[in-house]
Amino acid sequence: MNPNRPLNFKKAGEDGFTFIELLVVLATVAVLAVLLLPAIAGTKPNSQAFQCLENQRQLILSWQMYAEDNTDLLPPNDSPYFTAYASSANKSQLKNWVVGTMEQALDARDAPASMVGGVSELLDPNTLLSPYITNKLVYHCPADNYKNPLNNNRVNVRSYSMNSAVGTVWYTSSAYTAGGPPLGTAVQGGWLPGSSYNANQTSWLTYGKMSSFTGPGPANTFVIMDENPISINDGSTAIPAATVGNGGYLIDYPSGNHGESAAVAFADGHVIIHKWQNPETYTPIVSQGQGGNPPAQPLTDPNNPDLAYLAHITSAPR
Predict the structure, then answer these.
(1) Which residues contact 67 (CB under 8 A, 6 or more apart)?
(2) Distance CA 216, CA 257 (A)
(3) By the 8 A CB rule, do 168 and 85 touch?
(4) What digits encode the pLDDT tens for the residues 161-206?
(5) Rounded CA separation 263/272 (Å)
(6) Cβ burial, residue 317 (10 Å; 0-12/13-18/19+)
(7) pLDDT (tens digit per residue) in 208-229
(8) Which is nearest to 55 in space by CA: 144, 164, 121, 169?
(9) What is the mean pLDDT of the chain?
């Protein structure tokens, strides 16, 4: 290279870039890099939310496929929250859309396969979505890192629960309980009226078939939600549909694992991330000395807009 050779830059109108054009390009790239840094910094939580949405898409699709394969009938959603599946002597009595309760350590840690027929309980034949979901990680939100004291401070194997107004009876059916409703009957939705449990409530709709979502409609009725790991137990999440008269009430809490938000899947198949307006919605008050049965106290708050939102996507008056 000749050090005395002058640098010749292209003039405007000639082929190639001028020196000024190169400077503009470099400046533009620098500005874009500065703008993208916050987005890059937030990649991890965003990817966790995306994976949670994908998990719930798979769950709601499998739930719909189950109904298609079973003459419109929805899978059971009435397993007892206090009964461990892994150590049960009557596992066939506990068939459910998903078996196991996070209230019991054996189920919460995913008991050894030798106790549940050689596979994870999430993939066990009594988990009735198991023909459609073959990866147990689908049941766990990647942002759920809560160490359950009932599970020797390990993370729960499951993060998702189903609307207690949705599904059919199995455990409480007449096949196992004297005087119970027939197999295939819609769940009773005992918590729907509000602060008092009523196993025979008839004021609020429950949904045992895909065709039964007449109100508030499949696009406005939630089916799956990531539940708060403190209140989660069985596969059912109890949220009252009644707000008038008791000022809003919450039995089971949603999670706030995605930036004060939770993933929610609806009966028509769409899934959203919903942001809560009040921190108490996803911050359970832990009962003292209750031993996790369940560990979260109910929430009453007439001024919490989240409770009204949850009520309106849970059920509708008959």
Answers:
(1) 73, 74, 75, 209, 210
(2) 27
(3) no
(4) 999 999 999 999 999 998 899 999 999 999 999 888 898 899 999 9
(5) 6
(6) exposed
(7) 999 999 999 999 999 999 999 9
(8) 144
(9) 87
- Confidence class of residue 244 from pLDDT cuts 50, 70 and 90? low
How many CA atoms lie within 13 Å of 45's alpha carbon, on the beta-carbon side? 12
pLDDT above 50 (res 292): no
Contact 301, 311 (CB under 8 A): no
Which residues, in sequence order, are CB contacts of 20 under 8 Å at separation 6+? none
Return the structure tokens found at 38: 């916050």
d(CA 11, CA 15): 9
Pull the structure tokens for residue 248: 């809003």
**CA angle centred on 49, ends 46 and 54, rounded to 5°:** 125
| H, E, C per residue of the chain | CCCCCCCCCCCCCCCCCCHHHHHHHHHHHHHHHHHHHHHHHCHHHHHHHHHHHHHHHHHHHHHHHHHHHCCCECCECCCCCCCCCCCCCCHHHHCECCCCCCCCHHHHCCCCHHHCCCCCCCCCCCECCCCCCCCHHHHCCCCCCCEEHHHCCEECCCCEEEECCECECCCCCCCCCCCCCCCCCECCCCCCCCCCCCCCCCCECCECEHHHCCCCCCCCCEEEEEECCCCCCCCEECCCCCCCCCCCEECCCECCCCCCEEEEEECCCCEEEEECCCHHHHCCEECCCCCCCCCEECEECCCCHHHHHHHHCCCCEC
Decide: 63 and 76 in contact? Cβ < 8 Å: no
The closest alpha carbon to 141, from 58, 42, 226, belongs to 226
